[in-house]
Sequence to fold (1117 residues):
Amino acid sequence: MELLLFILPVFFALSVLVMPQSFVRAYGLIGGLATLALTVVLMANYNPDGGMHSFVAQQWIQAYGITLHFGYDGISLMMLLLTTVLVPLILLSNFGRELSSNRLFTSMVFLMQLGLIGVFISLDGIWFYVFWEITLIPIFLIAYWFGEPERKAALMKFFMYTFFGSLFMLASLIGLKSFAASFAIEDLQAVELAPEVATWLMGGFFLAFAIKVPIFPFHTWQPSTYSKSPMAGTMLLSGIMLKMALYGMLRWMLPLFPEALDCVTYPIIILGTIGVVYGAILAIKQDDMKRLFAFASISHVGLIAAGIMTADKDTLSGSILQMINHGLVAVGLFLAADVIERRLGTRSLRELGGIAKQAPKFAFWFAALAFASVSVPFTSGFVGEFLILKGMFSFDCVIGIVAGSTLILGAVYTFRAYQLSMYGPVKTSAFADLSMSELIVFAVIIIAVVFLGVYPKAVIDFVEPSVTNLLASIKQTPLVP
Amino acid sequence: MSVAQLVPLIILLPLIGALINGLAGKKLPKTVVGAIATGVMAVSFGLALMVFSQLHEAVEVNLFTMIDTESFSLHARLLADNLSVWMTLIVTGVGTLIHLFSMGYMKHDDGYYKFFIYLNLFIFAMLILVLGSNYFMLFFGWEGVGICSYLLIGFWYGDFKNTVAARKAFIMNRVGDLGLLIGLFLLLFNFGTLEYSELSAAIIGSKIDLSTVLCGVTLCLFIGATGKSAQIPLFTWLPDAMAGPTPVSALIHAATMVTAGIFLVVRSNYMFELAPMTQDIMLYIGLATSIVAAFIAMRQNDIKKVLAYSTVSQLGMLFVALGMGAYTAAMFHVTTHAFFKALLFLGSGSVIHAMSDEQDIRQMGGLRKKIPVTHATFLIGTLAISGFPLLSGFYSKDEIIAHAFEHGTWLYVALMASAALTAVYMFRLYFVTFHGSFRGTHEQEHHVHEGPASMTLPLIVLAVLSIFGGILNLPGIWLHNMAHWMSHHLEHNVAGLNLIKHTAPEGNMALMLMVAASVMSLVILVVCYLVYGRKNSVPVADEQLKGWEKWSAGKLYFDELYNFLFVRPTEWLSEKGSHYFESMFLHRSVVGVGQLIGKSGDLVRKWQTGRTDSYILWMVFGLIGLVVYFLIYKYY
Fold:
C-alpha cells in the first residue's frame, strides 16, 4: 500500500506521455487526485500517537552502509498531504494556459511529486539526498522549457546555487556517517559529536537548506527565478519545494546535531528574523507582482525557519501549520498574479488598476487571499503566526517584537499590491472574470485556509505527538522552557 | 430559551444574514437584501434583550476548542455577563437603527448588497469581540472589525483616495494590534491562560507581587487600545476613515468599533488597577488626545471631519476616565456617546444626502427649514454632546468631570476646557450648517429634500435616546438609596469589576459641578449663536487663516510628521535596499563567488603551458625555494 506512494507518480509520469493530447490535462488531474486519495487513506489509517510508521527497513548496500529505509509520521503525512493537495491545484490552475507540450509538463510535475514524496518519507540519509536532488531536474526543465524568454541566466544561477548548497549537505552526510554504523537516521542520530565537529557538519546541512528555503542572505536566486519561471514552476517552487528545506531542518538538522544547537540557534533565528523584515521592506516598492510576492515569501518563510529553530513544541506545531498555510496561500497569490498576466500580458503594478470593477469575482477571491496572506484571524496564517511569534517572543522578546513587525509590514505591501491592481479608476482593456478552473482553485484554497483558521486543532493534534517524539530525540534540553 | 442557547444565536444571526446576501444578494431585489440584513439585526437585538432580562449570573458557553496543547489551550468560548451583554445591546441596538438608515441612504448605490454583507460581517466580528470569554476571541473580533472597517472605508474604491484611507486605517490599527498581541503573549507566558475568569482569579488571588508583569501587560493592551480607539499617537486614521459611506462612520467609527479599546480596558480593569503607571499614562494620553482633537475640530469645514475629531476627543475623555479608574462612568459615557454620536453622524448623512453629496459646511447654510426632521434631531445631538443640561451627554460627561474634580483640580480644569471646546465647535458646526442663508449651487437647492422614512425613523429614535439616555444612571430613579443603576448593574456580575468602588463626589458638591457645567454650555451656546448664527458668518478658506487657526485647519500637521518620520524612510529603505544592497552587493557577491572559481581556474590553466622550458624554470625556482627554506629552518 505505502509503496504506491512511489508507484503512482512514476506510473502517471510515464503513462501521460502516451496519452492523446486532448486527454492529457484531465488525465493529469486524475493522477493528482489519485495520489491525494492515497495520502488521505494513509492518514486515516495512521494513528497520530503511533510514532514513526516505517514500512521499509532493510539493508541495501552494506559496504557503504546505505539502507532501504522509508517511513512516515504525522509531520511527514502533513507534508505529503500538502504536496498531494497542491499538485492537482497546480495542474488545474494551468488549465487556462497553453504550453508548448502539456504532456511533458504534466510528466515533469509527477516526477517532481515523486521527488517530493521521497524527501518526505526517506529515513536514510542517502535516499534523502537522492530525492532532494531529483526534484531539481523537473523544476529546472519546467522552467527551462516553459519559462519566460530571458530565463536562462536566472535559471543558471538557481541551478548552480542550489546544487552548490546540496553538495555541502552530501559532504556533511558522509562526514557524519564516518562516525556511524549506517546512513539510517537512527544510526546517524545515535552519534555523539563534539560540539565543534557538530557545528561544522551542521553547517553543510544548513547551507543546503538555507539556500533552498531561502534564508537571508542566501535568497538572491529566488526573486529572479520566481519571476522568470512559468506560473506552475513558481507555484511548485514556493508552494512545496521550499517546504522540503523547512522539513529538512525539522527532520534532519535539528535531531542530528543537537550538540551544535547551543551555538547556532541564535544566529539562525536572527538571520530568519532579518529575512522577515528585509523581505517585507523590499517587497513594499516592487513593481512586478511576482517579484513582490517572491520577497513576501522570503519574509514569511524566514519566520517559519526561525520558528523551527526555537525547538519548542508549540512553536514547531505552529511552524508546520504555517508551512501548510504558506503553501496554500503562495499558490493562490501566484495564480492571482498569473490570472492578471494571462489577460493583460503584464504584471507591472504601474500599468494596472480598477480590475475590481471589471471582474468582481476575481476581486473577491484575490481579496480573501490578500487577507489570508496578512494572517488575519479566521485564516490559518493567524494561528500559525500566533504560535510562532509566541515561541519567538518567549525565546527572546526583542526578536519576537522585531519579527512581529511582519504584522504591520505585511499589510503594507500586500494591500499596496492589491489596491494598485484592483482599485482605482479602470486603466486596462477588458478583463474577463474567472474561469471555472481558476474559481475552483481559489475556492479550495480559501476554504482550506478558513477551515484551518477556525479549527487549527485538526492539524495541531495530528502532528503534536510526532513533534514531541522529534524533540525527545534532541537529547539536550530544549532552549525554550 | 436559556441564556446559553441565546448567546450563540445572537452572534450567528448577522453571519447568517451576510451568508444569505453573499450567496444570493446579487440577484435579489434591493429591498429584500436590506430587509434580510436589517431583519437579522433586529432579531439579534431582540434576543439580546431577552438575555439581558434573564441574566442573573455570568454564563460561559463553550463552542469548541481551537488549540489544545500541553502548555496552553485556546477555546472558542463565549461569556455573557453584565458588561458583555450591555455592549451587545449597544452594538445590536444601534446597529439595527443604522442598518435601517442605510436602506434609504445607500438605495442608489451599485454595491448595495455588498454594503450590507460587510455591515453584517462587521456586527458578527464586533459581537465576537465583546462576547468572547478570552483575549484570544477578543483578538479574533478585534482584527475582524478591522477587516470590515478596511472594506467599508474603501467601499467606493473607484476613487483611489478612499482606498488609501482604508489602507492607512488598517496599517495603523495593525501597529496597535502588534502591541495587543504582545500583551497576549505576556499573559500566556506568565499565567498560561487567556480566559478572563481564570486570569482574574489568578491575578486577584495572587500572593506575589505582579506589578512589573502587569505593568508590561497593561501597557501592551493600552497600545492596542490606542490603535483601535484612535488615541495619540495612532489617531490620524480615524478622520481619514470618513472616506467611507456615512452609516459606516456612524456605526464603526463612532458608536461601536472605536469603543473596543474602552471595552478592552474595562474588561481588564483588575490588571490596570494593579498597574498605576499605565493608568497615569492612559490618563495623560487621553487628556492630550481629547484637547488636541478638539483643537483641530475647531477649524475643520468638512461636516464629517468635525464629527470625526469630536469622536477622537470624546474617546480621549473616556481614556481619562479609565485612567482615573472610573470604569462605570466610562461605560455610561460609551453608551450615551453611542446614541448621540450615531445620531450626529446619521444626521450628517441625511444632510449630505439632501445636499447631493456635498460635505463642506461652507456650501450649506439655512438647511433648518428645508430638512426639518434632520435639523431637529441634529440639534438634539449637538445639545447632548455639548453637555446641555438634562440631556444624556450632560449626565455622562458630568460623571467623568466629577471624578476628575476628585482626582485633582488641574485635571478638572483641563477636562472642562476640552468640554468647552467641544461645545464651541459643535455649535459652530450646527449654526453654519443649519442657519444663515443657503450657499450651495442652484441645482443643489432645487434638490434638497428630507430622506425617506427609513432614514428619519432611526434619527428620531436616536434623538429620543439622546435626550433620555442620561436617566440610566440617574441616582434614585431605578434603585433605592440614591444608587446609580448603571454603575450598580456593571459593578456586579462582571469579572473583577465589582472590586472597584465608585468614588465620585455626591450631594452638594456634585450639584455644584453640574451647575458649573450647565452654565458653561449655555454661555457657549449663546456666544456661538451670536457669532455664527445671527451674523451669518461663513468660515473663510484655509489659506487665509493665520496663527492658531492655521494650525487647527492643518490638523497640527500630524500627517506630515508621520510621513516624514515613518512613511518616507521606509519607502527610501525599500527602494535603495532593492537597488544597492540587493542587486549591487548581495547579488554581486554571489556571482562573485562563482566568478572567483572560474577565474582561479583561468589562473591555474595558464601555468599548464605544455612548454618544457617554462616547467624547468619553475622547477629551478622551486629548488631554490626549498634550499632557502631548509637553510633557514636549520639555522634558526
